Amino acid sequence: MSKTHIYFMPGLGVGPDIFKQLNLSKEFELHYLKWKKPLYQEETLTNYAMRMLEDIKHENPVLIGVSFGGIIVQEISKFIDTRKIIIISSVKSKNEFPKKFKFANLSNLYKLFPTNIITNFEKYSKFFIGKKLKKKAANYKRYLTVKDKTYLQWSIYNVLNWQQEIPTKNILHIHGTKDKVFPIKYIHNCEQIIGGDHAMIMTKAKKISEIINTYLK
């Protein structure tokens, strides 16, 4: 019996390690996609998604994306047949963006985002005070692998300017009730994770694994 191939796309700036705590059925063969550097600052999401196809080697795969990675897998699915699409801590259309995203886009405030904090995270992390913040800083250091300024600015622009209005078909949306990036009140038709925040792919991996295993059987 042939295995189901699953391709994972991580969130903005992070690497595939965020998926390592998932415990999925041995019926699945897992593949991890990595961020590519945009060819140029104005590269479209469409063009970027087409380039990501180079790394997908199997027909009719399952695509799983977290946060901005969830947007990317939806864009990829416009060019290939997929068995299922699963997004985690993400959005299905621009209509699920919080109002602050729309304001940041219209006012161009996103251009003021201090990308240098991410590109030089080690330098700034020493200013994180308190046990909780230091733990968060340690996690960011571990998982934040893409720190290129061009990539970060390109990503922020393309999240805020995503134009999809009609949700992708054949999609499962898993979302946390305490997500502060994409608040649950703006999200429709999702499988809720009680207490899950935007980083729940790591903190609620057991529950997320159960949902994925059940959904794909």
Describe the structure.
The protein is an alpha/beta fold and 217 residues long. It has one domain: Alpha/Beta hydrolase fold, catalytic domain (Rossmann fold, 3-Layer(aba) Sandwich), CATH 3.40.50. The protein has helices at 45-52, 68-76, 99-107, 115-119, 121-125, 131-143, 149-160, 200-203, 205-216, and strands spanning 4-9, 28-32, 62-66, 84-88, 171-176, 191-193. The chain has a six-stranded parallel β-sheet. Strand 3, helix 2 and strand 4 form a beta-alpha-beta unit. Helix 1 (45-52) crosses helix 2.
CATH top level? Alpha Beta
What portion of residues belong to β-strands? 5-15%
Helix/strand class: alpha/beta
CATH architecture: 3-Layer(aba) Sandwich
What does the oligomeric state look like here?
single chain
Distance between the termini: 14 Å
Helical residue percent? Answer: 25-40%
Q: Uncertain segments of ≥5 residues (pLDDT<50)?
A: 106-130, 132-137
**Main β sheet profile:** 6 strands, parallel
Give me some keywords for this one:
217 residues, alpha/beta, Rossmann fold, 6-stranded parallel beta sheet, 9 helices
Set out the fold topology:
Blueprint: E1 4-9, E2 28-32, H1 45-52, E3 62-66, H2 68-76, E4 84-88, H3 99-107, H4 115-119, H5 121-125, H6 131-143, H7 149-160, E5 171-176, E6 191-193, H8 200-203, H9 205-216
Helix pairs in contact: 1-2
